Amino acid sequence: MPEKKERIGLALGSGGARGSAYVGVLKVLEENGIRPDVIAGTSMGALVGGAYAAGAGVDKIEAVWRSTNFARVFKVLFPTVPLAGWSSGRQFARIIRYLVGDRTIEDLPISYAAVATDLETGLPFPITKGGLVEAIRASVSVPGLFVPVWIDGHLLIDGGVSNPAPVDVVRNLGATKVIAVDVLVQPEEVTFSGIPAPDYRERILGIVKGMERSELGEEERRKFYPSVFSVLFQMSTVFQKRVSNLLLQLNPPEVLIQPDFSPDPPSYSDVKGGIEAGEEAARCALPEILALVGR
């Protein structure tokens, strides 16, 4: 019997601006003649993976990332009415369409799935058919930020809520060997800022009325109240990272790439550090990747 051909899968998780690292990973794979047979992406991973599966060159994907700036982000996130989400997502859909056109998932040259979350059941919802733009748009629907998307009678939100590391989806699509890229921020990396509490805020509120500054220890003087946005962001960070770690333990990939963003953390207005971090991490993992493909 002929030997069964290995099918290489690429799992790209969620991660916001850190998803720019996926561009760097794809650049290194292409440089070494490695093209995945299967791609599954969650949230920003769905965008980059979907564009690549649709035939958009890495150069084009990188150019879109590098063209992002504050004005463009503001335009994408312009508020919508009625407020089912901060933004309707229509402007973001235009960017997606620029990258992928009006392709359907069934017609892509690479097997592909965009992972969203069914808002009613809370379960992952891999989208493997239908319009590619709508599938990616559903996968990136961050709760509260973008209006959810209806597909086949399911109301869908960001896939990172339920499956931020879609290794299982890649395998279900037929991959025999999986390369996974995890770009999620570690909770301890988040830097808080806020209003110092005991020096004046708590006294204003009457919490420590009568307490003099000299009575406060150094530890109390360092306390502060982070903004509600900082608290919600950290809550999401902790939740997604814990879910991702558990999923990677349950469904370990053959190769796991985890870029180091500490030298120059990316933001939507400056993704250069993210792309470079992805390239560096992929080059470090290259011996494992080449062994995976039998080279």
| Through-space gap between termini | 23 Å
Total count of strands: 10
Mean pLDDT: 82
SSE topology string: EHEHHHHEEHEEHEEHHEHEHH
Which regions contain 5 or more consecutive residues with pLDDT less than 50?
69-79, 81-87, 200-214
Q: Would you tell me the structural class of the helices and strands?
A: alpha/beta
Question: What is the helix fraction of residues, given as a range?
Answer: 25-40%
| Shape estimate | globular
Helical element count? 12
Largest sheet: 8 strands, mixed
Radius of gyration: 21 Å
What is the gist of this entry?
This protein has 12 helices and 10 strands. It has helices at residues 21-31, 44-53, 58-66, 70-76, 90-100, 132-139, 167-172, 197-204, 218-221, 228-250, 272-284, 286-292; strands at 8-12, 38-42, 111-118, 124-127, 149-151, 154-158, 177-181, 194-196, 224-226, 255-257.
Task: Outline the secondary-structure elements.
Elements: E1 8-12, H1 21-31, E2 38-42, H2 44-53, H3 58-66, H4 70-76, H5 90-100, E3 111-118, E4 124-127, H6 132-139, E5 149-151, E6 154-158, H7 167-172, E7 177-181, E8 194-196, H8 197-204, H9 218-221, E9 224-226, H10 228-250, E10 255-257, H11 272-284, H12 286-292
Helix pairs in contact: 1-11, 2-6, 5-6
